[in-house]
Every structure is written in C-alpha cells, then in structure tokens.
Design goal:
It is a single chain. By secondary structure, the chain is α+β, with helices and mostly antiparallel strands. It has one domain (about 5-165). The protein is about 45% helix and about 30% strand. It has a five-stranded antiparallel beta sheet. The protein is globular, with a radius of gyration of 18 Å.
Length: about 170
C-alpha cells in the first residue's frame, strides 16, 4: 500500500460528497416530472456522474475525431444529463422503470443527423447500461460496461453509416 492511497480514498470521498449534493438537487427537479424519482437516488446518480466524468474525455475524443475527419468540423457536440422512464421488457412486461442518463451527442446537417452515446442507470439496482444510437437507428447498440473502446468505436462507425444510409 502506498502512502497516498488513503489520500486518494479521502479525495474520492470528498468528490463523491460534492457529486451527491449536486445529484440531490437534480433528483428533486426530476421528481417534478418523474414521480418515481426519490431523494435516496442521489448517491446512485452521483455514481452515474462519476462514471460519466471518467468516460467524458474518451467519448468526446472519439466524437470529436469523427467530427473533424468525417464532417470537416461541421458537427456540434453536446453532453446532457436527464431522466426517462422505459418499459421493463417492451411487449412483455409494461411496468416502467426510471433511468437517469448522461448522453453525449454529435449532431450535423442542421438537426437531420445525430449520433448519441448514452450511459443510463436504473437507480434501485444501480445497474448501468451503455448504448450507441442515432436518429436513423431502429434500436440502439448495447456496449459492454465497463466500456470497451473497440466495441464503442465499432458502434460509432455503424451509427454513422446508418445515419447516412437509413434502412
């Protein structure tokens, strides 16, 4: 064990506290739209945001590389935080679950084309889901979590092609 391990752990604790305070405010706002949002989701949302911060440079880097090399810098990149409800098993079990999300997006040609990378988390089990999709994607492509960069690159490639060549 190195000397700075306890400091790293304490620094992580301080960062988690900061994120949890911010998440608590976010969950309170989300509860106005989603009655299933509960105050105790704050730590789960903080974990989601922690992962999002860890992935941010990598995901934005890949989207920026696509933007520069494939779109000549004409795309717009964005990161949003949100919440949504989805059926537990569409067509089988219609009970809806609440998900908190971080979504990286690249939009181009006005708003006609978009690729998204969505990190979503169901707060009760704190189960994480990573998906790549787009406007013309029938069903988003699941990416292994923790994130596998090669699988992410392949999904981004397919989403880009699908945006240009819809089914």
């Amino acid at each position: 064990m190195t000397e700075n391990t306890p400091q790293d752990w304490i620094a992580q604790t301080e960062e988690f506290l900061k994120l949890t305070k911010e998440a608590r405010e976010f969950v309170e706002r989300a509860a106005q739209t989603f009655p299933r949002a509960m105050a105790e989701h704050d730590m789960a949302v903080a974990r989601l945001w922690g992962y999002a911060y860890d992935f941010d440079q990598q995901i934005f880097g890949l989207l920026e590389e696509m933007n520069q090399r494939l779109l000549n810098g004409q795309g717009a990149l964005d990161l949003t935080r949100g919440a949504s409800v989805r059926p537990l098993m569409p067509g089988v079990v219609e009970e809806e679950l609440l998900f908190y999300e971080c979504t990286w997006s690249m939009t181009w040609d006005g708003t006609n084309h978009q690729i998204t990378v969505k990190l979503a988390m169901e707060p009760q089990l704190e189960s994480f889901h990573l998906q790549v999709g787009g406007f013309n994607t029938f069903r988003p492509r699941d990416i292994r979590f923790p994130m596998d960069e090669e699988q992410l690159k392949e999904a981004l490639m397919k989403a880009y092609v699908r945006e240009l060549l819809p089914p």
